Amino acid sequence: MELFDSSNHGNLSAFFSHYSSSFITYPGTDFLLKPVFIRGFSGSLHLVLLFVLLVSWVWKKFKVGDGEGPKQRFGSIQSWYYKLTLLCCLGVSGLSLVFCLFNYFYWHRNDWSEEKLVTLFDLAIRTLAWGALCVYLHTQFSNSCESKFPNLLRVWWGSYFSISCYSLVIDFLLYKEHASLPIQSLVFDVVCVISGFFFIYVGFFGKKEGRNTVLQEPLLNGNGNAESNNSKGGTPVTPYSNAGIFSILTFSWMGPLIALGNKKTLDLEDVPELYKGDSVVGSFPNFRNKLEAECGADGRVTTFHLVKALIFSAWKEVGLTGLYAIFYTLASYVGPYLIDTFVQYLYGRRKFKNEGYALVSAFMVAKLVECLCERHWYFKAQQAGVRIQAVLVTAIYNKGLTLSCQSKQGHTSGEIINFMTVDAERVGDFSWYMHGPWMIILQVGLALVILYINLGLAAIATLVATIIVMLANVPLGSLQEKFQEKLMESKDKRMKATSEILRNMKILKLQAWEMKFLSKLNELRKTEAGWLRKFVYTSALTLFVFWGAPTFVSVVTFVACMLLGIPLESGKILSALATFRILQEPIYSLPDTISMIAQTKVSLDRIASFLSLDDLPPDVIENLPRGSSDTAIEIVDGNFSWDLSSPSPTLKDLNFKVSQGMRIAVCGTVGSGKSSLLSCILGEVPKISGTLKMCGTKAYVSQSPWIQSGTIEENILFGQEMDRERYERVLEACSLKKDLEILLFGDQTIIGERGINLSGGQKQRIQIARALYQDADIYLFDDPFSAVDAHTGSHLFKECLLGLLGSKTVIYVTHQVEFLPAADLILVMKDGRITEAGKFNDILNSGTDFKELVGAHAEALSMLNSAEVEPVVKLSVSKEDGEFASTSGVVQNVEDTDFQKSKTDDLPKGQLVQEEEREKGRVGLSVYWKYITTAYGGALVPFILLAQVLFQVLQIGSNYWMAWATPVSEDVKPAVETSTLLTVYVALAVGSSFCILFISMFLATAGYKTATLLFSKMHLCVFRAPMSFFDATPSGRILNRASTDQNVVDLSMPDQIEHLANSMIQLLGIIAMMSQVAWQVFIIFIPVIAICIWLQQYYISSARELARLVGVYKAPVIQHFAETISGSTTIRSFDQESRFRDTNMKLMDGYGRPNFHTAAAMEWLCFRLDMLSSITFGFCLVFLISIPAGVIDPGVAGLAVTYGLNLNMLQAWFIWSLCNVENRIISVERLLQYTTIPSEPQLVIESNQPDRSWPLHGKVDIHDLQVRYAPHMPLVLRGITCSFPGGMKTGIVGRTGSGKSTLIQTLFRIVDPASGQILIDGIDISSIGLHDLRSRLSIIPQDPTMFEGTVRSNLDPLEEYTDEQIWEALDKCQLGDEVRSKEGKLDSTVCENGENWSMGQRQLVCLGRVLLKKSKVLVLDEATASVDTATDNLIQQTLRQHFTDCTVITIAHRITSVLDSDMVLLLSHGLIEEYDSPATLLENKSSFAQLVAEYTMRSNSSFE
């Protein structure tokens, strides 16, 4: 059954004749024409397909339940292409079966040959493979919504078409050569080509879309696949969660995101959600359960427990990365093992036919396995890292919510933020290094085996040298650990100080202390920089030891060979050199691994010790079921103490009972324990003895308002559903309606951090509204009326406590005596005891302490009575008053009108707190230039580069020398003596080692200097920024730069730049080396490099934006955390912990999304680069085996191959370093952003400094003062002209928002006027330096501020006064005895924010500061708001006594505070309404008289 005879040749055969003869002339290629090869190759390919389909099927089974929703089946009309494809696959399978059976029976009668057996094997495997493909298409793809066939199928069809065409061409060639051919073979190949063509068309040009659209889907078909892949928020879940095996292997699932990033700037909405296993929501519960199970009953978390729980939460990734690491290591040693064989082959010693192709195949398969394993190892490691970091941050956050006050005092918010930003991140990063220790053993073991095979006993010398090098690292490693620990401790201290300074920046500016505090911060940084310097120089030394290590090991090995008489042949030497190059990796990575283990251990210890801190004791309160008792709160024999080690409890012998619906007032002098009593009811104060029972839900309003960043509405709802009617009622009761009308965005106005764009009164009222909206059973108010004016205070008391909360249980602390008669029970406190309890009149008659308080109030009111206000009282309830109250009653916040960033001529400018600015597009070259030239003007950079080039030249030179000078085998005469050979090698090696020493030392110096300069620059600019910058910038953003970004610049940026330079120079060296051997490599090298650069450019736009998103979405995590820590009491009192935990998890996932996809994008790129460099390497190998023996020196050719083995790693390392530098430079960019903040005016103007004695009289003249907060905003003060006489007291009053605080801010030049001027003693304040002005004025601010430190450092931060002067000031402000009773006297500690001092005591400390300073001009900004009337009287008395000849300007809500002023200024809507002496204004029945009347009426009424 033969086809055609030899006579039938046409033109076609002439062409084939020429082609085949030229083809066959190549030696060693004739096997490519043999049918046995074609059928064998085809069968092998089909076997691979079968294996891939099997793995894919197992994968799908394994992945089931990983978040895939129900798949949408196509309607009744299925895709036409799909049906045809299925039929065609079935056809090919059937045809293969038919031909297999036909051939079997046809050949059964004849003798079997090798060719026939292989052909049958091919047909049988084809039948199975195409059958499996049909099943795959039917089960996996018939019900999918994809419009294209998977990449796996398209690649397969391409390969199938190619092999079919090849078979057909060979059929023609064979026919031409042998003149006969089995007809069934030709028919089969023709059918295969036609079917292959159809598959190519369908796979690459056809769409698998049916005519049925979404409109034709059944309505009752659930969500459909369109939504199965979407998260609740509508953002799709990452394609990784349901990608196919081919897509997973090649990272193709990242393609759509990278393509999108190429078209537009990526935003968080474009980045897919993490799938459940990687998100915190999915992974944290497992981690928590495991940790709890590990810790057992005592709940103490040790580092070991923590590590076990972390491994458990990512055990799959840990296992898989281990597996990948093993295969990677094995594959990477195939090359060095085969090098000697390859050199011998090139020399002409061939063991079998086609050995060259077998060697090339072995090299290439090993390369492919190595690339795949490395990429997936790194990706899985980072995936585990992202997850570990997220669960740790969540654990730290949850701990922060439940910390007891005792524990909290030991760890400030700055430190806890460091646990999150630095320690958790470091533990996450450790996933890169987790297999390091055992891999080093495996790599060294394999290296020694290969060396033993090649060099015999000299391998023992290698082992000894390797051990010596590794041991040299032990002292360096322990030093690094020590320095790292100290560095972290000093960083904690600095971050703690930074956080506190940013919180209190306004006070620092008002007092002209900011530069002093900056120098304190610089001192802390100096200590930190000391440890940083030691750390980087130790690292530099480590770097030198280990870059010199491979050279040292190779010298020792070759010397041992010489001494042992082992002949040095070029093949064996090249094999050894290639092994040393791979051995470099474990030796290089050892210092990194050891240092990383040390750093991670430090971080894990810190986190574990934090997680082991005591929580709030759960047994303080005995909660009764809601509605089960008439008693709301009952305390029996209660003793409570903030400090359990203290001999005297904070609260002693508490016994009282509160029935449901009662109103309880708590009063007492400053520091008597009023706020502690409320904290104790909330369960915040540790219990020593007694019982505390509570029945019902609670709501709490703290003394200093805690407001979250977010809208006003979110603050009021505080996690509750919106009930419009109740919401409106609450707004009305809290007098918030008018405020919201004035605000441009109403209740959607975004409040800045800690409510910076609201006045004190507005913050307090929002806080009250939050409590009212909760609809709790028990309400606890900690003096909320002190921050609002008299009118608003009465309104709040009447509408809230007596109105909306009329039927609720209310406990309120107050200093205003006028609110006491309305209480059902009054508790009078003194020294932590309840000294008196009862109704107002009962205890007024019987008690002494209460009498004192009320007496002080009566004394303050006596002034009003002397001014005969009876007629005014009548007027106060008349119609005019009603109108007055309604028109100017409330409340524009003009104190900080920054929130309005609003519209002029209808140009909406948006909210005060904008989204964080991030640069777009490529990081400018100017950023790189600034970074490189910051230290010494960039003078060290050329030296570092020169040393790098020299190092590379010497490295390649030494290896080239060894390859050239050693013989190929024993029977060849060596070119030089062995001693000369080794002398030259050692000289070159030592030279290269010294280059490394230079590089590492110069680099450490330049990096350290740059980090120090950038720190100083940024901090100086931040401290010199105007107040408006701090109002509009959440401190989280500044802290993020000061911690995370500074950390990058301190520790990793110099290394990244060095890696980039090193990898680029090394890559150029290898290219030069390979082209020296075979310049033809350039034919493929140039296009490959072009594709690599194009790929890198294609990738970088997405990667850059993803890296920026990581930076931007880290700040909200820190911000939310800082807010939670400061408001934890409020959060707990509303039982909102779980909501806050959920928010933290959402924010963590928002940060994790770009983080995860950054890692995947990097691997997407690296995989493609690896494949391209493998092609180059493969081409080089094929070229080398194709040229005849003797044309090229086998030793040098072998050297080219040893370098080529590293090509893909180096190329990937170069691109990886390039991308890493681009990503890390963003930290530098973010620091530089803050070095261009507009600055305040000069602190000191040398040419115009006032006299030391200025101001002598303290006369303040204001001329036509107009103030606005920003150029596009309305005027707040609209042309004020007045004069405050020197040495007299002026009171400034006005409703909330009339411009009182703005006037004071202008006086201190926190805001500069738009026009007009202020003169003090004839000097225009805008003509002198800010420090000269602010240091000569004094202020007692509205929010009393104390800094962490000592009593002395709080009173005298500039260290200008003696101890005697400080004691004198303390005695004057009535704190002397209090401080003397403390152990450390003036050095007794003050906690963060002065938490261990009561509000009133903090206010007295502020008074002490003023008494020390003795300025001629003193401003009191609602300074006595948070003290009781007695203390207020005391402060007023002190001021009268010690500031008789000073100008005192008082802003007050308490009318009594301004009644003894010489003059009163009444502001309304930024204009002066009245300005005269109090007596005159009271007589004239003025607006001031009405304010006084309201106050008196409130004080005289009992609100009952």
From TrEMBL:
GN (gene name): LOC103342679
Domain (ABC transmembrane type-1) ranges: 320-599, 943-1223
Protein topology in the membrane: Multi-pass membrane protein
Chief localisation class: membrane
UniProt-recorded name of the protein: ABC-type xenobiotic transporter
Compartments, record wording: Membrane
TM stretches of this protein: 36-59, 80-105, 117-137, 157-175, 181-204, 440-472, 544-566, 928-951, 982-1008, 1077-1100, 1171-1189
Catalytic activity: ATP + H2O + xenobioticSide 1 = ADP + phosphate + xenobioticSide 2
Domain ABC transporter as annotated: residue spans: 633-856, 1262-1494
Gene3D superfamilies noted in UniProt: ABC transporter type 1, transmembrane domain, P-loop containing nucleotide triphosphate hydrolases
E.C. numbers: 7.6.2.2
UniProtKB keywords: ATP-binding, Membrane, Nucleotide-binding, Translocase, Transmembrane, Transmembrane helix, Transport
Family, as annotated: Belongs to the ABC transporter superfamily. ABCC family. Conjugate transporter (TC 3.A.1.208) subfamily.
Alphabetized InterPro entries for the sequence: AAA+_ATPase, ABC1_TM_dom, ABC1_TM_sf, ABC_transporter-like_ATP-bd, ABC_transporter-like_CS, ABC_transporter_C-like, ABCC_6TM_D1, ABCC_6TM_D2
